[in-house]
Amino acid sequence: MADVILGVDIGTLSSKGLLVRLDGTVAATVVQQHEMSTPRPGWAEHDADRIWWGELVTLTRRLLAQRPDDRVVAVGTSGIGPCLLPCDATGTPLRPAILYGVDTRASAQIDALHARYGEDAIRERCGSVLTSQAVGPKIQWLRDEEPDVWARTKSVHMSSSFLTNRLTGAYVLDHSSASQCNPIYDPRAKAWIDEWAEDIAPGLRLPDLAWSGEVVGSVTPEAAEATGLTAGIPVVAGGIDAWTESVSVGVKQPGDVMLMYGTTMFLIEIVEELRTWPTLWGTVGAMPDTYNLAAGMATSGAVTDWLRRVTGTSFENLVEEARAVGPGAEGLVMLPYFAGERTPLFDADARGLVAGLTLRHHREHLYRAALEATAFGVRHNLEAMAEAGGHAARLVAVGGGTRGGLWTQIVSDVTQQPQELPRNTVGAAYGDALLAGIGSGVVTEAETDKWNPVETTVEPDPAAAEAYDRLYALYRELYPATREISHTLAAIQRGL
Q1: What is the pLDDT of residue 446?
Q2: Quick check: 258 and 268 in contact, CB under 8 A?
Q3: What is the pLDDT of residue 403?
Q4: Do 93 and 329 form a contact (C-beta atoms < 8 A)?
Q5: Angle (CA) 104 108 113, round 5°
Q6: N or C: which end of the chain has fewer CB within 10 A?
Q7: What phi and psi values does residue 28 have, to the nearest 5 degrees?
Q8: What is the pLDDT of residue 41?
Q9: What region, left, alpha or beta, does residue 369 occupy, with left being phi > 0 and alpha being psi -120 to 50 degrees?
């Protein structure tokens, strides 16, 4: 029998569960696919009972069946966010969860709250301007558009806090997630902003606050019966997947940057103090007394998966075909704004575009152009981080998109920066387990550096720099040149 830690992460299109030994080696892994619901243009939702809780139950039981002789000694969870899930007095969801920045329904509420409090005042007090990523406008939308649901709402959750509540009964949210509940959390005071919270969510009790690695309860008998876990196992607060994923790869010093290759591309840089910038998010970190500059593209893997489905072939085939195509995909430049764009544009009505198409281009060119578009987006965000005071001294890559090597090589070639790949790039669930191990005391801080050492480094190819500099300049020109057309088309799509 071995002691193991359970980590579960709920992603946009899949969920992953891990059992990790106390030395950081992975004992068992399971993955389950699901879909994101898009009932209207600009909407993105999950059925929290079926996907969030249902898949935690399924993944946990599958893991325990693989390792029946192991003993789970701590639990950590994470998931997509920031999200909004309204629940009634019994903790039952009242509607599907409204997802993070890919859900752009609250544009009118963003404008109204900026007008009410002042855009600069919100950014200075909360760390970020209001965007589709913020929870406050989503709450205001719920009040405005679904008053019957709002009238029955007694608690609000993100994916990790919902799982923690189901596991332990605690109503708690981690500070890092709370710092993305603009404009109702003060990242310097580490507390809710009472007057703005009462204005936006009158009468609603907000969750208690804790750090991601802080034990907030233990598995209840009811949760034990559902999951197969033993009652009494400690559970930490957890958090949003990108933040726990940064913990999983040792991003913890100022200048460290995590690049998360997933359905969306997400970047987190550790900074010495809270920094506010109009085109980025300034947040509280997953660990106590840390701050981040955060950036996120609305798509990356979502576009490559779209191409896989449209072309009817496998990722393996697409990668090998695209590998044979040189930089620039033989004269193509793509804008990857298939779901609008988050940082550094904050434009929900931006749209995807492929420029330069001819009859001689095939799927391999489109796939290469999609990978390069993500790399251009990474470079754009890194430049914004530098303008905000970051310095990106070290890039660490993580996530499913690191497999195969082509995508990471293109990003290094476009940015002309090396990327470190740690031994485990299995994602946020690994960070969940690490946080749970630290919080429960079964893993010491001194042992964490041994969990996930760097295994390889992707070095940029200097010979590719000139070609990519030229293409990047075209990429930057393409959005402002087509912005008004994209906005008009977005309005037409909403009308449909």
Answers
A1: 79
A2: yes
A3: 86
A4: no
A5: 110
A6: C
A7: -160, 150
A8: 82
A9: alpha
Residues contacting residue 163 through CB under 8 Å, at least 6 positions apart = 8, 10, 52, 53, 56, 77, 79, 238
Our CA angle for 264, 100, 414, nearest 5°, is 25
CATH number of residue 136's parent domain: 3.30.420.40
Question: Are residue 272 and residue 237 in the same domain, yes or no?
Answer: no
Nearest to 10 by CA among 135, 138, 164: 164
Residues 53 and 152 both lie in one domain = yes
d(CA 347, CA 131): 9
Q: Let me know: does 269 contact 392? Beta carbons within 8 Å.
A: yes
Q: What is the DSSP letter of 358?
A: -
User: According to the model, what pLDDT value does residue 450 have?
Assistant: 86
Could you tell me if 141 and 109 are in contact, meaning their C-beta atoms sit under 8 angstroms apart?
A: yes
Residues 227 and 340 reside in one and the same domain: no
How confident is the chain (496 residues) per 10-residue block, as mean pLDDT?
A: 96 94 96 95 94 98 97 98 97 97 92 97 94 95 98 98 98 98 97 98 98 98 98 98 92 94 92 93 92 94 95 96 96 96 92 98 98 98 97 93 93 98 89 97 86 94 97 98 97 87
Comparing CA positions, the residue from 35, 33, 1, 37 lying closest to residue 19 is 1
Out of 242, 267, 285, a domain closes at 242
395 vs 205, 275, 426, CA distance in Å? 39, 19, 17
> What is residue 209's predicted lDDT score, i.e. its pLDDT?
98
